[in-house]
Amino acid sequence: MSLTLTRTDLLKEQNFINGLWCDSSSGARYDVADPAADDCFATVPASCADDASLAVAAAQAALPDWRARPARERARFLKRWHALIVANTDDLAKLISREQGKPLAEARGEVAYGASYVEWFAEEAVRGYGDIIPEQVRGMQLTVTREAVGVVAAITPWNFPLAMIARKIAPALAAGCTVVAKPAEDTPLTALALVRLAEEAGLPAGVLNIVTTSRNRVADVVGAWLLDGRVRKITFTGSTAVGKRLARESAGTLKRLSLELGGNAPFIVFEDADLDAAVDGLMAAKFRNGGQTCVSPNRVYVHDAVYAAFTQKLAARVEALRVGPATCPDAQIGPMINARAVDKIDAHVRDALAKGGRLVVGGRRLTDGPNYYAPTVIANASHDMALASEETFGPVVPLFRFGDEDEVVRQANDTPYGLAAYFYSRDIVRVARVAERLETGLVGINEGVLASEAAPFGGVKESGYGREGSRYGLDDYTQTKYRCQGGLA
């Protein structure tokens, strides 16, 4: 894919620290590859612990002024940033498609989705209300205020390189925090372009800092932030294993944490479901970004009475999906992020077939490029298969049979994860009952698209804690202060 940006200044290949674009202090760099062809098309700094500490020093120095600014002033900056993101949608989408692989139309959708969080928190910035507690003793006033938590370290994944960093930075800045950020090593360019637009919007030096680094130096950069007492909060989206490590290693300085971690989402189709709507919902939930999303359905449970009909309808839709690079205008699914991802998908499919699964559609690597896998449906899935307990993170749908509501709810909850769940039913009593019993932070009821800037996003159990988006998302970047003033009578 030819990288032809209207604004060439959005292709940044340096860190941004204290308002300046700079290389790593070590001078080391690493390659950024296009997953559609595995060819290198850019290089960025392989930053070290010293770079991470410089970013924190800049953020700490900028904190008093930024935190003291009126909320409406911070909101005006976010509004300018939002306008610039929207105005540069095409260039940002091209960067997303080039480094992450998703089709260009889907990349444009991600830009709009990420921008919606910036706009939302521009509006929420002026609504960080406190409370006045009714007088308990004559002449004594009790008030509660919300204050910025301090310097925030944001660590983001590769699957949504713009949306994930936007929905972390925007509420942090709205609350009055300053930020140090590390984008995923596979997809740093989109985040750097986003920061370039923040610079253009007039953000003061030091308020937002970003460092890139290679896979073998991530521990150095993040480790520096974990040990640094000036970093008061870490917000992370990624694997549960890494989230647990962050929780352990941040304990020394008692940092606040927001962790949006792994999932194992069930998708339940009851016998009274609208099957066409259920297929539509599953297609939207499962095949967005090629199945590389944390809320992607991993286990699809279909009632015995509608199993055959649902499988037939789903197979026809999946078989019609078009796979190709972002340069292909009708592509609906692009390459997976890298060869390791394809190897895991293929291993899950081969394991399922060896354990009695029946291949309905797909089930093979594609030769269109190095990292493509055919959209796949496997019938007769069972819980001894690896794909039942591990996130496949790819375009594979395993279909499990069930016959009883209590049975399927138990199976849906039988996982250490609790991010998202979906179910389809036209029985309003069942809808209320099942929604309450599912042990997840998000529940889609007759709907396959859950995320919205107006709604709280986050999980329970080993899917993490904290919420992003909505009015609750601002709270995660503030701390409560209680003031007791006497002598007023």
Brief write-up:
Keywords: Oxidoreductase. The chain has 489 residues and is of the alpha/beta class. Helices cover 38% and strands 21% of the residues.
The portion of residues assigned to helices is 25-40%
- Supply the number of helical segments: 15
Distance between the termini: 73 Å
Structural class: alpha/beta
Runs with pLDDT <50, length 5+?
A: none
Keywords: Oxidoreductase
Organism: Massilia pinisoli
Protein name: NAD-dependent succinate-semialdehyde dehydrogenase
Pfam families: Aldedh (PF00171)
Walk me through what this model shows.
There is one protein chain. Helix 2 runs antiparallel to helix 5 and helix 4 (104-124) runs parallel beside helix 5. The chain is 38% helix and 21% strand. The longest helix has 21 residues, at 104-124. By secondary structure, it is α/β, with parallel strands linked by helices.
List the helices and strands and how they pair.
Layout: E1 15-17, E2 20-22, E3 29-34, E4 39-45, H1 49-68, H2 71-87, H3 89-100, H4 104-124, E5 131-133, E6 141-148, E7 151-155, H5 163-175, E8 178-182, H6 188-200, E9 208-210, H7 218-227, E10 231-237, H8 240-249, E11 256-260, E12 265-269, H9 275-287, E13 297-303, H10 307-319, H11 339-354, E14 358-361, E15 376-379, H12 386-389, E16 396-402, H13 405-413, E17 417-418, E18 420-424, H14 428-437, E19 442-445, E20 460-461, E21 464-465, H15 470-475, E22 478-485
Parallel strand pairs: 7-8, 7-10, 8-9, 10-11, 12-13, 12-18, 13-16, 15-16, 18-19
Antiparallel strand pairs: 1-2, 3-4, 5-6, 6-22, 11-21, 14-15, 17-20
Helix pairs in contact: 1-7, 2-4, 2-5, 2-6, 3-4, 3-6, 4-5, 9-10
